[in-house]
């Protein structure tokens, strides 16, 4: 009885003329929240920004450390993990029914609706640990990139004979301060144009990296590669091999951080369930269902 009352309290009573509480509901969704205005374009921009993020910049180095056997295998393994977790999250967007159930606007809402109990705290802890790790990864990547630009300018100005050593710490602090200031912007998640700009930038620097690699190969430069990655005793020591292997695994895992923001992307799209689950056979019924 209590559960029925709780479920009924989550529903919105509609007036005789399509109103909610006497007000016009044309700007409200079926759950009383502001109507979602996202499209497949904004969803694509969000996804591309998350998938082709700064993590792709270190994939070439990671493959070089792991070799042509383990490297691609790890990429495939992480891609299947991301696909599986993304499928679970997409199916958990509405509960208990995937089409007519209550919407879960965040990861914790989905956990609370589908698992409940102590699992909410455990999954919340795992989520925050994951987000902290991703944030640290972005901070390190941003500082390394800024240092690389400064060193490049130094080499062009003074020549390659100069060491041009630069610490990453000031740039980490600068990046962190910028992030703190940007986080104060209200409704930052509604800036869809920012994701479109970021998607264009993601394609740009990924294309630049690919172009530079092709130019180096076409230009006749030959770099030694192997099936097992860098060779102990030739390229690195045994300790460096172990450290670089784990670092490469971390870089690849960092590049697959898309699923952490999937529900938030889905919650902003009025077409998101169809878009994010287009590979499912039951999508046709979702498209044709007038209740969605």
From TrEMBL:
One of its GO terms (molecular function) is symporter activity. Pfam families: Aa_trans (PF01490). It is found in: Endomembrane system. It is a multi-pass membrane protein. It comes from the Eukaryota. GO terms for cellular component: endomembrane system. The chain crosses the membrane at residues 40-61, 68-90, 128-149, 193-215. Residues 1-16 have a biased composition (Basic and acidic residues). Residues 1-32 are annotated as: Disordered. Keywords: Amino-acid transport, Auxin signaling pathway, Membrane, Symport, Transmembrane, Transmembrane helix, Transport. Residues 36-270 form the Amino acid transporter transmembrane domain. InterPro entries: AA_transpt_TM (IPR013057). GO terms for biological process: amino acid transport; auxin-activated signaling pathway. Carrier protein involved in proton-driven auxin influx. Mediates the formation of auxin gradient from developing leaves (site of auxin biosynthesis) to tips by contributing to the loading of auxin in vascular tissues and facilitating acropetal (base to tip) auxin transport within inner tissues of the root apex, and basipetal (tip to base) auxin transport within outer tissues of the root apex. May be involved in lateral roots and nodules formation. Belongs to the amino acid/polyamine transporter 2 family. Amino acid/auxin permease (AAAP) (TC 2.A.18.1) subfamily. PANTHER family: OS05G0424000 PROTEIN-RELATED. This is Amino acid transporter transmembrane domain-containing protein.
């Amino acid at each position: 009885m209590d559960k029925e009352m709780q479920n009924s309290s989550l529903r919105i009573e509609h007036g005789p003329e399509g109103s909610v509480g006497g007000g016009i509901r044309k700007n409200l969704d079926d759950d009383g929240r502001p109507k979602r205005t996202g499209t497949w374009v904004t969803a694509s921009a969000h996804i591309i920004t998350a998938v082709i993020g700064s993590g792709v910049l270190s994939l070439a180095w990671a493959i070089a450390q792991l070799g042509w056997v383990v490297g691609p295998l790890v990429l495939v393994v992480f891609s299947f993990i991301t696909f599986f977790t993304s499928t679970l999250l997409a199916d958990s967007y509405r509960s208990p029914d995937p089409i007519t159930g209550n919407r879960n606007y965040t990861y914790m809402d989905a956990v609370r609706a589908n698992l409940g109990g102590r699992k909410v705290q455990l999954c919340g802890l795992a989520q925050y640990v994951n987000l902290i790790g991703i944030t640290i990864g972005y901070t390190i990547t941003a500082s390394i990139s800024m240092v690389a630009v400064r060193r490049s300018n130094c080499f062009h100005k003074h020549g390659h004979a100069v060491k041009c050593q630069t610490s990453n710490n000031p740039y980490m602090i600068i990046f962190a301060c910028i992030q703190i200031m940007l986080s104060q912007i209200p409704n930052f998640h509604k800036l869809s144009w920012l994701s479109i700009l970021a998607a264009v930038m993601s394609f740009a620097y990924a294309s630049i990296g690919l172009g530079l690699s092709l130019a180096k190969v076409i230009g006749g430069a030959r770099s030694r590669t192997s099936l097992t990655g860098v060779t102990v005793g030739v390229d690195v020591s045994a300790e460096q091999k172990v450290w670089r292997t784990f670092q490469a695994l971390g870089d690849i895992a960092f590049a697959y951080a898309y699923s952490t923001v999937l529900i938030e992307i889905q919650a902003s799209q009025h077409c998101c369930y169809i878009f994010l689950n287009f590979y499912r056979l039951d999508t046709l019924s979702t498209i044709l269902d007038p209740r969605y």
